[in-house]
Amino acid sequence: MSDEIEDLLDYPRLMVNALRGVLREALSIVEEEGLPGEHHFYIAFNTQGPGVVLPGHIRDQYPEQMTIVLQKQFSDLVVDEDGFAVTLSFNRAKQRLYIPFASVLSFADPTAHFGLQFVEPPTVGEDGEDATDGAEAATDDAREDAGTGDGKSAGGKVVAFDPSRKR
Fold first, then answer.
1. Is-above-0.85 flag for pTM?
2. Domain of 121, in residue numbers
3. What would the pLDDT profile of 14-54 be if each residue is shown by its tens digit?
4. Is residue 167 part of a domain?
5. At 108, is the secondary structure helix, strand, or coil?
6. d(CA 140, CA 148)
7. Are 82 and 51 in contact (CB under 8 A)?
8. Would you state the pLDDT for residue 13?
9. Which CATH number does the domain housing residue 88 bear?
10. pLDDT at 132
11. Cys-Cys with 151: which of 19, 20, 118, 158 at CB 3.0–4.6 Å?
12. Residue 166 lies in a domain
């Protein structure tokens, strides 16, 4: 019975979903109102994630992950419950992308000195050990790709939720 309760109260997963809600809400505001002032977003995502839609030549160029910038040259932003679609210019050719929130690795708004890192909750391997080796390295890579560095050099706020980190 207690194992069933633990499964229902998967706090690490609830936290990741809540942080993705911040991204969803920020993009929804931009969808309705446009980007205010000098705000712009860096969004790093897994190009192989389930549901990611992007042209093959872009996926070939970025086989694992890429970072997009929503600043001046984007259009047709549409946000839904599961992700967002946006039209971006790649070498002067407009391309439509769809990025599920579950594939987003990091989000940063340098103007607000704000960033989020999305690290999946740990999974248990067949041997019962934590199977998330490299999760911290992935976080560091995503942070660099999002242009947020370590969150200290820019004086910004980077919210990183890593349930695999030992306390």
1. no
2. 2-161
3. 999 999 999 999 999 999 999 999 999 999 999 999 999 99
4. no
5. strand
6. 10
7. yes
8. 87
9. 2.30.30.220
10. 40
11. 158
12. no
What's the structural domain count of the chain? Answer: 1
Structural domain includes residue 145: yes
Dihedral angle, C-alpha 56, 61, 62, 68, nearest 10 °: -90
How many residues appear in the chain?
167
**Distance separating alpha carbons of residues 49 and 83, to the nearest angstrom:** 12
Residues pairing with 104 in the sheet: 45
Closest CA to 44 of 148, 131, 123: 148
Confidence of residue 153 (pLDDT cuts 50, 70, 90): very low
CA pair distance 28, 138, nearest whole angstrom? 27
| pLDDT greater at residue 6 or residue 102 | 102
Q: Token pair of 89, please?
A: 């210019």
Please report, as a single letter, which amino acid is at residue 14. L
Which tokens belong to 5? 């309760």
45: β partners:
66, 104
Tell which residue, 54, 46, 47, 56, has the closest CA to residue 97.
54
Rounded to whole angstroms, the Cα distance separating 97 from 72 reads 16
Give the pLDDT confidence score for residue 62 in this predicted structure. Answer: 95
- The values of phi and psi at residue 26, to 5°, are -60, -45
Identify the CA nearest to 147 among candidates 39, 41, 46, 58.
Answer: 41
